[in-house]
Design brief:
Blueprint (H helix, E strand, L loop, with lengths): L15 E4 L2 H8 L8 E8 L6 E4 L6 E8 L1 E6 L2 E6 L2 E5 L5 E5 L6 E8 L3 H6 L10 E2 L4 H16 L3 H19 L1 H4 L1 H4 L2 H11 L8 H7 L4 H12 L3 H19 L4 H7 L5 H12 L3 H9 L1
Antiparallel strand pairs: 1-2, 2-9, 3-8, 4-7, 4-9, 5-6, 5-8, 7-10
Helix pairs in contact: 3-4, 8-9
Length: 295
């Protein structure tokens, strides 16, 4: 019978972390469906102030770091890489390295360790002209859902089928980052949308019109709307509201600010509109969300 997963706490509020035990790894390594690429550890560290990890001999597995918010630094092969929101980096195996969260703007990162006979080739696809590279990728909600689904599977069962499904999802998650441009070449050739999203993130406390967003990208409103929806699947205002709601989750989680105060921080005048929008996107009301995560 398989052992329970090993969980380790490093002291970050809201963190999730699972490390597969050696016997589970052995079973996965013996499964021909998934032994070419498989996960060995996975975690999510939100607002990870003080996070600092050094491996003087490196890691026997490849490590993917995917930053969702804040920033941090990776030191490897006598180079420094700055990892910021909506960027990822893959650390090669058996190479000394150190990574740390920014002291004033701590990162929130999803991370995972992977191995398998195909792992080196997949890692090489993340290189640029054979060199290590930070990659900027537009935020896509499905990746977060997929990451959470991997956790859910690991917390539920370690049977063969569950491990197969889990590792299929891990492979898809990793390759969706590495091949993000190739998957949608027509969409990702339009850097204007990524620029517009970054602009939105810098203006979460304000009201922004579609006209302003289009002007900022030097496009007509109709052209801007078409390209933005093609890339994100949403209208610019719906996407902007989604960013506001995602940011409100941090206020609800990490602070005791009232709903009114949070609305002011996000440039939303109507508390009832905020509550309806929050419930629609998150699935529960702001007050229920706070109670669930303050336990």
């Amino acid at each position: 019978m398989m052992e329970e997963q090993k969980k380790i706490k490093e002291g970050f509020l809201g963190q999730r972390m699972i490390v597969l035990t050696p016997n589970i790894r052995k079973i996965i390594a013996g499964n021909p469906l998934i032994n070419t690429f498989y996960l060995t550890a996975i975690g999510y560290y939100p607002n990870a102030a003080g996070h600092d990890r050094e491996r003087r001999l490196g890691s026997p597995e490849f490590i993917l770091l995917y930053c969702m918010d804040g920033e941090g630094r990776i030191e490897i092969q006598n180079k420094n890489f700055e990892l910021k929101a909506n960027m990822f980096f893959i650390i090669p195996r058996n190479v000394p390295h150190r990574y740390s969260s920014h002291p004033k703007h701590p990162w929130s990162i999803y991370w995972l360790h992977f191995s398998g006979s195909n792992a080196p080739e997949i890692f090489e696809r993340s290189l640029v002209d054979g060199n290590l590279q930070i990659h900027a990728v537009p935020f896509e909600e499905y990746r977060v859902r997929q990451f959470n689904q991997i956790f859910t599977i690991l917390e539920h069962s370690f049977s063969s089928k569950e491990m197969e499904i889990m590792n299929f999802r891990v492979l898809h998650f990793v390759t969706s980052l590495i091949y993000h441009k190739e998957i949608n070449p027509a969409v990702y050739s339009q850097d204007s949308v990524s620029s517009s999203i970054n602009f939105m993130k810098s203006k979460l406390s304000e009201h922004i019109s579609v006209t302003k967003l289009a002007e900022d990208q030097r496009m007509s409103v109709s052209q801007y709307l078409r390209i933005f929806k093609q890339k994100t699947g949403q209208s610019p205002i719906a996407y902007f509201n989604q960013l506001k709601i995602q940011h409100s989750c941090q206020y609800l989680y990490f602070t005791d600010k009232s709903i009114k105060e949070i609305c002011l921080k996000l440039g939303i005048e109507d508390q009832y509109y905020f509550s309806r929008l929050f419930s629609k996107l998150i699935g529960v009301s702001p007050s229920v969300y706070r109670k669930m995560h303050k336990k």
